Recover the amino acids of this structure.
């Protein structure tokens, strides 16, 4: 037996390639199920965020249109020009 290739040695030296552990059918099925649940959660969160964004945009648009309909000018400040000395 060559030194360093024993069954009792479990540490991996830096730079040493370790082949991937084979995945069983049960692990593959579990990963697939979890991935589907996570995707569903992400889609629900995205839809909720989009609905909130749309509602806020509509609210702001209604406020802007109401403001424009009343003819009230927005508090716009004129930029002061510096006088030449």
């Amino acid at each position: 037996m060559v030194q360093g290739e024993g069954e009792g040695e479990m540490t991996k030296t830096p730079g040493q390639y370790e082949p991937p552990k084979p995945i069983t059918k049960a692990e593959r099925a579990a990963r697939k199920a979890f991935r589907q649940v996570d995707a569903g959660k992400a889609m629900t969160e995205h839809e909720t965020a989009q609905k909130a964004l749309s509602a806020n945009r509509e609210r702001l648009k209604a406020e802007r249109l109401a403001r424009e309909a009343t003819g009230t000018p927005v508090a716009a400040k004129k930029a002061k020009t510096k006088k030449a000395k």
